[in-house]
Amino acid sequence: MKVPLYNQKGERVNEILLPKEMFDVSVNFDLIHQVVLVQMANQRKKIAKTKDRSEVRGGGKKPWRQKGTGRARHGSIRSPIWKGGGVTFGPTGKEVFKKRIPKKMKRKALFMALSAKLKDNFLLILDKLEIKEPKTKLMKEILDKLFLKNGSGLIVLPKMDEKIIKASRNISKVATIQAKDLNVLTVLNYKYIVILQESIDILKNTFLKD
């Protein structure tokens, strides 16, 4: 399938052939949703932690004698029913949120997301992206001509490019990623996807090699 090829000034300069297996796939929203949930679960960090009655400080002495006081019997002031006591069934910090999903399903969902972006005219192919210095101002001028005035964008690089990365990281709503690391969750987080021409071969070698 042929799509327009643009330069970094936003001008159409040629056409480029994209693989149908990656950019012309029918969309299954259930599959995309399933893969996104797995990715989000795998990125989840264990930050919540409560103490049970064995971890709370104090409470070694029985608060009062077992009988004869007229009050309910208690063995420790660190019981879960006491204020300041342990927590029952709270997060322990040992929970496992990791989930697994077949590699083919992840790839298929990525292809669906890219196909949807292309169909909705939110995917741009650039012949190249170059700046003389890693300055935010220079990068913003380029991105304003491409997409930045209309929404957020993800720049897909063929390899690490320190100038592009440093110049982009202070621009809100803009992120960079290497083609080999592209995934469906990152694609869906941004309105526009800008793929450099050299990144197409990286995508094919990474995701279509099987």
Tell me about this structure.
This protein is α/β, with parallel strands linked by helices and 210 residues long. It folds into two domains: 2-44 and 99-207, Ribosomal protein L4/L1 (Ribosomal Protein L4, Chain: A), CATH 3.40.1370.10; 49-96, no CATH class. The protein contains seven helices and six strands; from the N terminus they run ββαααβαβαβαβα. The chain has a four-stranded parallel beta sheet with strand order 3-6-4-5. Strand 1 and strand 2 (12-17) form a beta hairpin. The chain is elongated and about 95 Å long. 22% of the residues are buried.
The N- and C-terminal alpha carbons lie at a distance of 21 Å
Distinct helical segment count: 7
Order of helices and strands: EEHHHEHEHEHEH
DSSP, total strands: 6
Estimated share of beta-strand residues: 5-15%
Described by strand count, sense and barrel closure, the largest sheet is: 4 strands, parallel
Which descriptor suits the 3D outline? elongated
- The figure for the number of domains is 2
From the 3D structure, determine the CATH topology of the largest domain. Ribosomal Protein L4, Chain: A
Overall mean pLDDT score?
Answer: 93
What's the CATH H-level homologous superfamily of the largest domain?
A: Ribosomal protein L4/L1
Which class do the helix and strand fractions yield? alpha/beta
- Strand order of the main beta sheet, please? 3-6-4-5
Low-confidence stretches: none
- CATH architect. name of the largest domain: 3-Layer(aba) Sandwich
